Amino acid sequence: MPSLRLAHRHLTGVTVIIVCGEMDATNRGQIERYLSEARRAPSDAVVFDLSEVPFMDSSGLHALLTCATDCLRHGGAIHLAAVQRLPARLFEITGVVAHIPIHDTVDDAVAAALAPFKRSL
């Protein structure tokens, strides 16, 4: 089974989480721990770079939705970027696409996440 690799980078007001590997029941705890440690501030937006995630099951989806709920509770939001075919289908059939923005590229997602911040300046 391929391992899951997680990395992040902080920008002003946004944390970009880079996910490489399958997101499933075998690593849900790893994902949730990483997210709680990587986010700089609860109100920051989170952009998930999913370009290297070929598969996601309901456990991976649950980790993303838990993060989204926490972000919203604190005035932030999440954005998904570069989503591959199978995870995109999961987002479509579960209705996630109606509630969480999905962008073609990480740069597009970061720009969208920063848009409310730029308007308030």
Give the topology.
Blueprint: E1 5-11, E2 14-20, H1 28-38, E3 45-52, H2 58-73, E4 78-81, H3 85-94, E5 102-103, H4 106-119
Parallel strand pairs: 2-3, 3-4, 4-5
Antiparallel strand pairs: 1-2
Please tell me about this protein's structure:
By secondary structure, the chain is of the alpha/beta class. 42% of the residues lie in helices and 23% in strands. The protein has 4 helices and 5 strands. It has helices at residues 28-38, 58-73, 85-94, 106-119; strands at 5-11, 14-20, 45-52, 78-81, 102-103. The chain has a 5-stranded mixed beta sheet, sandwiched between helices. Helix 1 runs parallel beside helix 2. The termini are far apart.
The CATH homologous superfamily name equals: STAS domain
CATH class: Alpha Beta
If helices are DSSP runs of H or I spanning 4 or more residues, what is the number of helices? 4
What is the overall shape?
A: globular
* CATH topology value: Transcription Regulator spoIIAA
Order of helices and strands: EEHEHEHEH
Strand order of the largest sheet: 1-2-3-4-5
Beta strand count: 5
Strand content: 15-25%
| Overall number of domains | 1
Average the pLDDT over all residues and give the rounded result.
92
Which stretches are poorly predicted, pLDDT < 50 over at least 5 residues?
none
What summary fits the major beta sheet? 5 strands, mixed
In which range does the helix fraction lie?
40-55%
Distance between the termini: 47 Å
CATH architectural category: 2-Layer Sandwich
